[in-house]
Amino acid sequence: MEPVRDWKGRATLVDLLDRVFDKGVVIHADLIISVSGIPLIGVNLRAALAGMETMLEYGMMQDMDIKTRMWEAQHRKNKQVSLMEGEEVVLNMFGSYYYMKGIYNAWKSGRFYLTNLRLLLYQQDIAEIVFETPLDKIKAIAVRREKSFTGKDRDILHLYLEGKKVARLNVLETEQFRQNIERLVRKAGVTLDRQLPEEELDERTNSFLMEGEKVSCKGKMWYLMPKSGIIAETWRPGHLYLTSRRLCWWNDFDKRIVFQTLIDRISGSTVEIKNISPVLKDEEVLDVIYNNNGAKAVASFSGKETDEWKKVLIQLVSGEIKAKEDKDKEKETCPQCGKQASAKELLEKGCPNCNWVSPRLKKKLAQVAK
Q: Which runs of consecutive H residues, i.e. helices, occur in 107-188?
């Protein structure tokens, strides 16, 4: 079969990087070097190019990864973190921090140092502080169960910091780490918020959610940016959010909302197989149909969860999601355990989770007993 050049479109650098880090690329090449029409050297190349997490996920380079980590651990320079005057280390533990900058997202590992003044992650091999925050900037702490790239569940510590920033940490002893942070934060005179909304654990939503707006569905999705001037339609990586008011897409590179429409303007959705670039072919594409100033418009998204998004949008259009939200509004938070329960049940019977009973109900029960 003769190779065919496709000049209908070109893959951008962002397309290639996302493809390599997310799924990987397999390169098949046959190269012949000729002089004066005479073939001299032949090269048959078969290579797999991907991020290390993707390689390990597919069972590749595991031995090399283990040997590399062992060598690094044995030959790493013993560089100690510099402490400030009057600073004392309370806890020292191996862990990692989820680093986000532009389209680059990755877990960076090192040693966490919890002192009487701050929390920091230090990488000894390059003598660099990857993450740092003063204790008095921590406003809330939450632990969430998440799946790692290997498919295993792990506890992730979320720190809600001043300025609506969120830090995600992974440590060996999550509960011990959390308890020590809470103790030192309280000692610093800070009262932690116990009722931390789920959407506040996402640094992106903190920057664009309006007052009273809640996130009901979110996920990593590509978006087909419309043509603008001389720039043709282009797929860009980001995150899609469905809130109580709108459907919106966050551009990871520009760190802002690029597309949004009110949920009552969405009329339907379809999923089709399309080529979204010369590199990414036969991908599922979600087309969201909505009303744009009286005219029918379509917004296209692509990702691993297109079918799930289609089901959610069908429920939205049919009114099932609104009915569920109305039912959730009838719930209240127990003042003792912090869990959700029916408002009517809390007032009339008490909390079904921790058996908390309101003072008013206690008084009523005492009168009945007499």
A: 174-187
In whole angstroms, what is the distance from residue 158 CA to residue 172 CA?
A: 15
Instruction: Output the pLDDT for position 297.
Output: 93
Structural tokens at position 44:
């048959």
Q: Where do we find the tokens 């990593």?
A: 220
Cα dihedral 212, 218, 224, 229, rounded to 10, equals 30
pLDDT at residue 254 in the model: 80
User: CA 194 → CA 56, 85, 263, distances in Å?
Assistant: 37, 32, 31
Q: What is the pLDDT of residue 78?
A: 52
Number of H helices, E strands in the chain: 9, 18
Q: Read off the pLDDT of each residue in 135-142 and give the average, rounded to a whole number.
A: 87
Provide the β-strand partners of residue 299: 288
Q: What is the spatial distance between Cα 174 and Cα 144, in angstroms, rounded to a whole number? A: 11
Alpha helices (H) in the chain, listed in sequence order: 13-22, 52-57, 62-75, 174-187, 203-208, 306-318, 320-328, 343-348, 359-369
Q: Which pLDDT belongs to residue 59?
A: 67
Residue whose C-alpha is closest to residue 120's, from 148, 81, 154: 81
d(CA 164, CA 200): 8
Q: Write out the two tokens for 246.
A: 């709108």
Starting at the edge strand that comes first in sequence, how are the strands of the sheet with 165-171 ordered?
128-134, 118-123, 104-115, 89-101, 165-171, 153-161, 138-147
Paired strand residues for 198: none
Q: Supply the mean pLDDT for the chain.
A: 79
**pLDDT tens sequence across 93-103:** 999 998 877 65
How far is it, in rounded angstroms, from Cα 288 to Cα 317?
11
What's the rounded Cα separation, in Å, for the pair 106 and 96? Answer: 10
pLDDT of 70 reads 66
Give the Cα separation of 118 and 358 in Å (integer). Answer: 39
Q: What is the pTM of this model?
A: 0.49
Catalogue all structural domains in the chain, each as residue range(s) with its CATH number: 13-68 (no CATH), 81-196 (2.30.29.30), 205-326 (2.30.29.30), 330-369 (no CATH)
Q: Which two tokens stand for residue 127?
A: 């003598």
Cβ(166)–Cβ(201) under 8 Å? yes
Residue bearing the bigger pLDDT, 172 or 344: 172
